[in-house]
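Hi team,

As requested, here is the filled-out complex form for the S-adenosylmethionine run. I kept the field names the same as last time so the parser does not choke. Let me know if anything looks off before we queue the next batch.

— J.
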Amino acid sequence: MPLLSWHNRDAALTDAARTKYRLLEPVASLSHGAPDSPNMLIEGDNLDALKALLPYYAGQVKCIFIDPPYNTRSAFPHYDDNLEHSTWLSMMYPRLELLRELLSEDGSIYVAIDYNEAHYLKVLMDEVFGRKNFQREIIWRIGWLSGYKTMAKNYIRNHDTILYYSKNAEKTYFNKVYLERKDFVERFSDTAYKALLSRLVDLGISKKEASAFMEAAQFEGLPERYPLEDTWNSSVYDKLNSIAVVSFSGESVSKMLGVEELKGQKSEALIRRVLQSSTKPGDLVLDSFAGTGTTGAVAHKMNRRWIMVERGKHAITHVVPRLKLVIAGQEQSGITKAEGWQGGGGFRFHRLGKPVFDENGHIDESIRFEHLAAHVWFAETGTPRSSRAAKEAFLGEYKGTAYYLLYNGILGDESKSGGNVLTRRVLRSLPKFDGPKVIYGEACALDDDLLGELAISFRQTPYDIKAG
Ligand SMILES: C[S@@+](CC[C@H](N)C(=O)[O-])C[C@H]1O[C@@H](n2cnc3c(N)ncnc32)[C@H](O)[C@@H]1O
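And here is what came back:
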């Protein structure tokens, strides 16, 4: 397969593996609503955050929507295309790798981008996700009310691109999408209606004609609910679609919160369309470039679980207040009406904590049992461990093998290494299992013959934890 080459590609290829596992530390004062909520907002760099999520969420995420920086040639004061371009590719590669690990077998990933990097991103994603898993290049039209991106060189550019891949094309979850009247009608806010009308008049259409067009476009021949593919050639759909673009860029949350709009905020309707297509209620949705938190707000109103990561201060200044309003049912913009959203739920705010293992591979003393258990379980099985799993030495059984972890006096022995060393006494106190066993501990006092007889593989912490 042809591969993309760039400055420092080799380092980018090992970046995900080299990134340290860190703890995710909950911040109660910035969390909201139901305390047992599965939704997470993480403030920090997403490379660290995605790695930290792996032991808990690998293979669990149904849909990823990301809207990374578009690399519009402005990161460095003295523009150097090669440097900037390579830096962007090196930023994306390890993150895409980790995102792929987090996706479920039937999961989908959507990446919003513009012409600056779209074609390079396609090649990068072909490499990480596999060409056969490429599903669609989605054209995201920029409305004629909100303007064109550029008219330079005689050609108008009025779209961004969304690249849509699945983890496994043969197992991908698809949900038939229906269009409903309210999908269009709700978009005609007074402001949008008036703005559109005046634009038509500016274009030289008489006010009477323009109003008639608006009315017709709003209702004409539109059934209550119909599958998207049935509208393939419908002129009504075309008409409505041109208007829908306008309302997609409708009232922004920034306006609602009275703060300056952040560049690149996506419309809720766009993300709703993605989640309608690739998820069902209860599924887990992830956005690791959260911006103002549109993905989480939409997922929340659609009763999906969500995780968002944002490194900027707007994690606190924008995302927290936005989601707070959504939870309180006090936010009336975006898809609130269309989803009949009334409020409820919650989220837990997290910051990235210290690495689980230090430079020499030693476990940081303050690491609690359940964190190490998640790493051991993930290293052995490649599957996540529920954060609600019982806190006991027997971690569970996977494919006929039982796994145990002796750590931090889990057996009730608080002496320095007490209970962390596998002795006969400790062995007797462990839940019995008839079959092969893997036991992690600081040291082992049993001889090899006995271990063989009892079908025990002993692994020493931390050296044998491959996840480190
Ligand atoms: C284009 S904006 C996303 C806008 C978002 N879709 C919305 O609707 O508001 C990209 C965001 O990614 C964040 N970002 C960029 N690099 C990041 C990184 N390495 N880790 C976490 N966030 C990052 C930026 O701070 C910015 O807020």
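Two things worth flagging: Confidence is low (pLDDT under 50) at residues 239-257. The pocket of S-adenosylmethionine is lined by residues 45-46, 67, 69, 262, 264-266, 289, 291-292, 294, 309-312 (CB under 6 Å).

Thanks,
J.
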